[in-house]
């Protein structure tokens, strides 16, 4: 089980410079990667921009978005920004992508929420061509059909979501899948579907399968109000998510075993408290 830790890029009030200190500490303590979560319509630091900064502040630790709402970016812009982070980091970026469940994240960018799935399918094919240096379409400007990105290191993709379409996208386009929340019991059925579809498609090797656990290693229930705010769109389910965060040494250690038993191969602990000391508290428990 590869274990990573999220940076607190979505916790309101977090100084952006804290993200760099957090990542340096995570690298020093031996986490396999740092990850982000992200929304558009929420007071937060952008995932890919934050990881560009982290790339310059660290040397070896992996970088992971978990997950970027891909259709909220124009395809060429996403290809260029992600390719730039991959280049700056020396190929350390894994790009977790999804479509999201909140219409409010699509309204600020003027995109149709209902058609996000079809847009995502087109985008996944576009990204691969762009990173391979293939000339991509340029609308009404045929003389401008050319690659949009320079030489880019491999950018592995993880696909988020629990639908049949997410399983298909994982097998067709990605290195693996991310549960992006919901706990081991919610992830397990999708993990089984992906493994079966992966084998049926003749994919070589094993898929990467990433789980997410919200945590606070501080005393008390710090971070509860933040989670309820972040997931307010989900109504009463926000309370389920908040109450599912692991906050004691026994639960933090136990959730690793639970995700592993559910078939996950990687796990990221996503913080609910923006204190760098949380990195050390977690490392002492799970590394």
UniProtKB/TrEMBL annotation:
Keywords: Flavoprotein, FMN, Monooxygenase, Oxidoreductase
Origin superkingdom: Bacteria
Domain Luciferase-like: 1-234
InterPro entries the UniProt entry points to: Luciferase-like_dom, Luciferase-like_sf, SsuD_RutA_monooxygenase
Region forming the signal peptide: none
PANTHER family: ALKANESULFONATE MONOOXYGENASE (PTHR42847), ALKANESULFONATE MONOOXYGENASE-RELATED (PTHR42847:SF4)
Protein's name according to its UniProt entry: LLM class flavin-dependent oxidoreductase
Organism of provenance: Amycolatopsis rhabdoformis
């Amino acid at each position: 089980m590869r274990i990573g830790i999220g940076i607190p890029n979505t916790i309101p009030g977090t100084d952006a410079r804290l993200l760099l200190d957090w990542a340096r500490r995570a690298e020093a303590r031996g986490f396999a990667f740092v990850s982000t979560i992200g929304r558009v319509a929420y007071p937060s630091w952008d995932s890919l921009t934050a990881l560009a900064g982290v790339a310059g502040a660290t040397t070896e630790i992996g970088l992971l978005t978990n997950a970027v709402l891909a259709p909220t970016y124009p395809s060429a812009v996403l290809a260029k920004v992600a390719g730039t982070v991959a280049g700056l980091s020396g190929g350390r970026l894994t790009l977790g992508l999804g479509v999201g469940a909140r219409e409010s994240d699509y309204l600020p960018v003027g995109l149709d929420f209902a058609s996000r799935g079809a847009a995502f399918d087109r985008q996944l094919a576009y990204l691969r061509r762009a990173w391979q240096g293939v000339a991509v379409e340029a609308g009404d400007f045929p003389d401008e059909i050319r690659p949009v990105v320079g030489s880019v290191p491999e950018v592995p993709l993880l696909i988020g979501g629990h639908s049949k379409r997410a399983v298909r996208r994982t097998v067709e386009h990605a290195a693996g899948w991310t549960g992006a929340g919901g706990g081991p019991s919610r992830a397990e059925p999708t993990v089984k579907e992906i493994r079966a579809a992966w084998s049926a498609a003749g994919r070589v090797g094993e898929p990467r399968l990433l789980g997410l656990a919200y945590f606070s290693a501080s005393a008390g229930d710090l971070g509860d109000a933040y989670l309820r705010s972040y997931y307010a769109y989900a109504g009463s389910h926000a309370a389920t998510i908040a109450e599912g965060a692991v906050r004691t040494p026994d639960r933090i250690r136990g959730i690793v075993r639970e995700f592993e038993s559910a078939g996950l191969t990687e796990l990221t602990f996503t913080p609910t408290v923006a204190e760098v000391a949380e990195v050390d508290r977690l490392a002492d428990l799970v590394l």
